[in-house]
Amino acid sequence: MPTVALALGGGGARGLAHIHVLDALDELGVRPVAVAGSSIGALIGAGMAAGMSGRDIYGHAKEVLGRRTEVASRIWRARPDSFAQMMAGGFRIGQFDVERILRAFLPDLPATFEGLQVPLMVTATDYFGHKLAILHDGDLYSALAASAAIPALFKPVSRNGVVYIDGGIYNPVPFDLVLGRADITVAVDVVGAPERMEARAPGGIDLMFGATQLMMQSIIAGKLVQSQPDVLLRPPVSRFRVLDFLKLDSVMSETAAVKEETKRALDAAFSAWEARGG
Fold first, then answer.
1. Residue 142 a catalytic site member
2. What is the pLDDT of residue 85?
3. What is the DSSP secondary-structure string of 20-63?
4. 250, CA 20 to 30 Å: which among 30, 55, 82, 84?
């Protein structure tokens, strides 16, 4: 069997659809030899790289997102320790500490990249360096937090003296990071695009996130001109917003078809690999 590398894109709650792809890989007996992830893709990729199956990740997501009371309890646990800590540097939008949020919601993961079973690369944006950062060693949680630090929602993350924000700003679907690391590269794009949901015009927050989606899709289109993964999957996630985590069941239901699509696409990719002589 050919080796497979996996790239999981960013998209907030839309990234829950990645679980179907992991399920398909599990059922095919395919264990990726390298994983790259951006934002929510980095979080789910870390779970897989730590040895969790797609079913394990779904079970954890159902446990923590299936009840509003559980979500509220975990958010309360992630609050600042004191009012003084919350107000440090003055009150501003995007006050949540994303690393505290992740520690409250993620399953137990290794403390460092070195504790993972599969090599993982995490994208982040070096804010003052004006460039893409690829994090792959040292502290795992701060790297995941850096990749998921969506502007206007979360504080930037300082890691080893560098200030980071959301990895999707520069590389929403980081398939280029794993090209050449395996026989077949699988990429999953869950960025989506703005959809007309109501008769009224979109509000300021929707416009901000929608504009970010358009920017990310432009980046992805440019990357695909330069190189392409062997398999590119795009679950139907556009109707969901970035923070629709409480709609876990709807996201999973409406994107369920991507599981069989993954199997068919991999079967075709395996056949093409064999036809090339393996």
1. no
2. 45
3. HHHHHHHHHT---SEEEEETHHHHHHHHHHTT--HHHHHHHHHH
4. 30
Q: Pick the catalytic residue: 166, 176, 189, 230?
A: 166
Q: Comparing 36 with 66, which gets the higher pLDDT?
A: 36
- Active-site entry in 38, 39, 142, 147: 39
CA distance 234 to 253: 15
**216, 217, 223, 229: CA torsion to nearest 10:** 110
Sorted by sequence, the CB contacts under 8 Å of residue 67 that are 6+ apart come out as none
Asked if residue 113 lies in contact with residue 136, where contact means CB atoms within 8 angstroms, the answer is yes
For 190-222, the pLDDT digits (tens) are 999 887 766 667 777 778 878 888 899 999 999
Among 28-32, 90-94, 119-123, name the one with the lowest average pLDDT.
90-94
